[in-house]
From TrEMBL:
The keyword Secreted applies. Belongs to the bacterial flagellin family. Gene3D superfamilies: 6.10.280.190, f41 fragment of flagellin, N-terminal domain. The keyword Plastid does not apply. GO terms for molecular function: structural molecule activity. This is Flagellin N-terminal domain-containing protein. It is found in: Bacterial flagellum; Secreted. GO terms for cellular component: bacterial-type flagellum; extracellular region.
Length: 180
């Protein structure tokens, strides 16, 4: 005769332990990921919610990267504009210096030479300032309704005054706020 020995209490305890371990594992997954829903074995509604949340988080992460790119672009442009501003301030300083009646022709030539160098530096900065391969400062703006009529008249008027002897057109246009 055969005898089968079983321990029902041990089998029940083992089944309860497996259930507790499964619940513990699921709770740990939720805690470690921060998500309520972690897998497709959840309900279809729960899976749809998880997909929507994942999509939202992915979109927000990309938006954050885009904003950081925008900040970097603005900082790059700001640095270039600071250089342009420094050069324009020096050109203004030189323009005021050139109006001094005690300057000789050689002094005026030296001032004009530095102004030309500053204008060339402004051109270089505006032409070479880029972010991600795109030019940042090469913009064409219409400042005056008819600059071709207004600027030459102003240049002739300024050159005819004794306060501004022999200054060339680029300097006068820079003083007028119009850079070539």
């Amino acid at each position: 005769m055969s005898v089968i020995n079983t321990n029902i209490t041990a089998l029940i305890g083992q089944n309860n332990l497996k259930g507790a371990q499964s619940s513990l594992q699921q709770a740990q997954e939720r805690l470690s990921s921060g998500l309520r829903i972690n897998s497709a074995k959840m309900t279809p509604l729960a899976e749809a919610i998880a997909n929507r949340m994942t999509s939202t988080v992915t979109g927000l992460n990309q938006a954050s990267r885009n904003a950081n790119d925008g900040i970097s672009l603005a900082q790059t442009a700001e640095g270039a504009l600071d250089q342009v501003n420094d050069n324009l301030q020096r050109i203004r300083e030189l323009t005021v210096q050139a109006q001094n009646d005690t300057n000789t022709a050689q002094d005026i030539d030296s001032i004009q030479e530095e102004v030309n160098e500053r204008l060339a530096e402004i051109d270089r900065v505006t032409e070479q300032t880029q972010f991600n391969g795109r030019d940042l400062l090469l913009l064409r703006l219409l400042v005056l309704a008819s600059p071709s009529k207004w600027v030459p008249k102003m240049v002739k008027r300024l050159q005819s005054t004794s306060a501004v002897p022999m200054l060339q057109e680029p300097l006068l246009m820079a003083v007028a706020g119009i850079c070539t």
